[in-house]
């Protein structure tokens, strides 16, 4: 390569939008020389650096768009404390084939057993594997849909919530919904049916959804669509928070369980 071509290389890389390669060019060329790489090997090193940078940026952007309330990972989940869960089943779910197929994952159990932790962790796995994800609490979702309907923007909101490949709806069932809200939730579930995946965490069994939605007919229609292609994780056990309080002596072992409306 001529001196002129070499000097203009950073500019050309910038025009090609290979900014990571441009910014690390000298370091990468020094590494290629130190390792005595031939031309194809050196080119592979340069391309690998650019691909790794773009992948890192994609994941960062996906995590930001997903709006996870906190960072949780499968490695940080205490499977030993929740013996009702099969770690192999959870690892299989982390492969995200169910997301690719547009299936629903229902995570159910009493408050405080790690449902939200699993939802966030599996959502992060989906982002890393290239799927678009959006996380919302059930109440925030319903409030947003009701507000949009009152403002004449319901279609806009339904389109927004229908767009991500995986929609995570956390804490469904902790508070009963207004009767009309059930129809809005049905509209969203119908919009996503066999198009996108849903992950729903709930402290209520599906037999109680009619109570939560204040409409047994609509609840049946919603469950018919959600459970058509579905997987279910049921967690049975004590709340992590109550367990820690018992260990510290702040709560006796025979204390009453947390009320149904407690945070997950």
TrEMBL record:
Q: Which SMART domains match?
A: AAA
Query: What SUPFAM superfamilies does UniProt report for this protein, alphabetically?
Result: P-loop containing nucleoside triphosphate hydrolases
Q: Which Gene3D superfamilies does this chain map to? A: P-loop containing nucleotide triphosphate hydrolases
Q: Where is the AAA+ ATPase domain?
A: 101-236
- One short Pfam name that applies is IstB_IS21
**Which keywords appear in this protein's UniProt record, sorted alphabetically?**
ATP-binding, Nucleotide-binding
Tell whether Phosphoprotein is among the UniProt keywords. no
| UniProt xrefs under InterPro entries | AAA+_ATPase, DNAC/IstB-like, IstB, IstB_ATP-bd, P-loop_NTPase
How is this protein named in the record? IS21-like element helper ATPase IstB
Query: From which organism does this entry originate?
Result: Paracraurococcus lichenis
